[in-house]
Predict the 3D structure of the following.
Amino acid sequence: MSTKNDYFLKTLHVISWIIFIGLCIEAGGFIFNVFFTLFFNPEGAQKFWTEVNLSELYYFNQSHYVTLTSIMIIVTVLKALMFYFIVEIFHNKKFDLSHPFNENVKRFIAKIAYLVLGIGLFSFWGSEFVENLVKEGIKLPVLQNLKLAGADVWFFMGIILLVIAKVFQKGIELQNENDLTI
Amino acid sequence: MPIIVNLDVMMAKRKMSLNELSEKVDLTLSNLSILKTGKAKAIRFSTLESICKVLDCQPGDILEFKDNL
């Protein structure tokens, strides 16, 4: 059982690393492309990212362009930060399945919950912003390609994680009481 | 907590060391130490039974209630 758990945790660790690196590349790419299109080559907005053509928005209003790309950057950075915390807890070996109810895990879940709520909030803001721009007649890529889809799912996940953090708090109290029962 | 653990008093009366008691009641030294210093939150009946058996005493000799603490 223990070997199986170790294998499972190692697999999750590797997957988390891959996703973290992917999100870092994506966030870095977004940041670079914003500066590149604003200061060097506006034509770059045509191929802002894979299947993301923001040239119409760029020529319509640069401040709208900066707002939308900033929201995309914030969402991607928050996602990368979330996976950084996941990688960190695996790396520091604070995730102990034999004693799952400890302060480190509770703090980790609470941190992830607030990050997820933040991602949900910015995704929602971004999707509303895109909707308003589309109403004004600007052609924009779909939300999935802008990495702003699923705001409701992020909110739902954040609330569930907050509930789990509360359950963990109770679990820690019970564990402490059990440890001090002779 | 108003419940006082008088384990050290009973051990002194029976002239028994913590090591000896831990071997006889089959508890670890650290757990007995937690009990002796009053840090324990609860005690199992089975533990109380074995301590009473080894020290030849009643639960009331080990546990005491003092409200004014």
Remarks:
- Helices of chain A lie at 2-39, 55-60, 62-91, 103-135, 151-179.
- The CA atoms of residues 3 and 9 of chain A lie 10 Å apart.
- Chain A is about 75% helix and 0% strand.
